[in-house]
Design brief:
It comes from Shewanella surugensis. By secondary structure, this protein is an alpha/beta fold. The protein contains 12 helices and 10 strands.
């Protein structure tokens, strides 16, 4: 029997290719486990890896072996019952026992599980597979990461077009000075001595010839120092600097009136976390603005957004007005990709719901890429839901969904951001 395992492109001894092939083969089971993990996990570890359990019978490696039939010989070590030529009877049907425990489960067929650990990146890739941001075609260029070529000092290697002449000549001069400084000093001393001897009557001719010979040797040595060497060459160095061209802002709006209990807020928080993780996979720079409201709206930090509670009624339009003001002041629509997500239990003053319709239609929907509204309640829908539903019929960048329990979060999220048919 022979097993073939592909170990090409392995990183640090790990079978990278086989790992990806394994994930592809069992993607259905893995995606189901990832989907279940979203509702099972706490908010703080929603983007960590995951352990996947797969039945052992499903993970057998393909193998080549001889098929049944034919005549063959086998050697069974430790045989004390049979001799050559004896025929071995088959065991009675159903009498074979596996290698596991002898007693079976009293509530169904038992099976061993294979535990497979996936990384954070693999988890997020499977979590958001087949999802996309609607209306992204209008801003496709802003999604790309742009680079700008900038100067980054000098380097010893490069192409001729990038040679820095001044730096190269400066390096050449320094090298020539270092290599010939002592020789030039000696040459100057000998030349002065030669001049003095030549001006002195009756000087020895042999000494003059000797000094002239030394001067010639020194000049030859100095002349052999190359004017420029490959060691002297300096090239302008250029690097790619990333330019933050893809920037987005996510407005999180939530009702914090007395009707919104902590369990409802926890459901909304899980939805916001999923949305944030999803947007960060598309946009490199993402800012989040938290706006809470009851009868009045206020921009707050994350802690106050999720865990503060107020009493009294609800006026949703106050949050929409504040969002529009912040967007105009800090996030121009021609520079930012704007997304908004609103969570509420549906309570609102009946007279305020038409005002919300007007604010969305006139000020918000023309500027945002996508506006998602989730209503977290087990009661019947009220006027706010109906107003938003009417807007959904006329605008493609608004979506409304209903969440009853925590298990509905991920299915609703997938419904909001599923890939649009072409």
């Amino acid at each position: 029997m022979a097993n073939f395992i592909d170990r090409r492109l392995n990183a640090k001894g790990k079978s990278t290719v086989n790992r990806q092939r394994f994930i592809q083969r069992y993607k259905k089971q893995i995606k189901q486990a990832v989907s279940d993990a979203v509702t099972r996990r706490s908010v703080t570890d929603v983007d960590k890896g995951e352990e996947i359990s797969i039945p052992t019978r499903d993970i057998n490696e393909p193998s080549f072996h001889q098929g049944a039939g034919g005549v063959r010989e086998k050697v069974h070590p430790g045989n004390d019952q049979f001799i050559r030529g004896d025929k071995i009877e088959r065991p009675p049907s159903g009498d074979g026992r596996g290698a596991g425990p002898g007693d079976a489960s009293d509530n169904g067929e038992g099976q061993d599980d294979f535990i497979f650990q996936i990384s954070k990146d693999e988890y997020l890739e499977l979590l958001f597979e087949d999802l996309e941001l609607p209306n992204l075609q209008k801003n496709q260029l802003n999604k790309l990461v742009e680079y700008q070529i900038v100067r980054a000092g000098f380097t010893n290697d490069g192409v001729p077009a990038n040679i820095n002449i001044v730096r190269s000549l400066r390096s050449s001069l320094a090298r020539r000075i270092a290599m010939s400084a002592s020789k030039r000093a000696e040459l100057k001393r000998l030349e002065e001595a030669l001049t003095q001897l030549e001006d002195t009557p009756g000087a020895e001719a042999e000494k003059i010839i000797e000094i002239r010979s030394k001067i010639k040797i020194l000049k030859d040595k100095i002349a052999k120092v190359p004017f420029i060497d490959t060691f002297d060459l300096r090239f302008n160095n250029f690097v790619k600097k990333e330019i933050p061209s893809s920037q987005a802002v996510m407005f999180c709006l939530m009702d914090v009136s007395g009707s919104m209990d902590q369990a409802t807020k926890d459901i909304a928080k899980r939805f916001y976390i999923l949305l944030y993780l999803f947007l960060t996979r598309t946009y490199k720079n993402l800012e989040v603005v938290y706006i809470r409201h009851h009868t009045q709206a206020k921009e707050v930090d994350e802690q106050e957004f999720f865990y503060s509670q107020e009493t009294g009624g609800t006026i949703v339009s106050s949050a929409l007005k504040l969002m529009h003001e912040i967007q105009k002041q800090r996030y121009p629509e021609n520079e930012w990709n704007i997304y908004a997500a609103q969570a509420s239990d549906g309570d609102n003053w009946a007279d305020d719901s038409p005002q919300c319709h007007k604010l969305l239609e006139k000020n918000i929907l023309p500027t945002v890429r996508y506006f998602s509204y989730i209503e977290i309640t087990n009661r019947a829908h009220q006027t706010l839901w109906r107003e938003y539903e009417n807007l959904q019929k006329s605008y493609s960048n608004i979506a409304v969904q209903h969440i009853k329990h925590a298990d509905d979060i991920y299915p609703v999220f997938r419904e909001l951001f599923k890939k649009q048919s072409v």
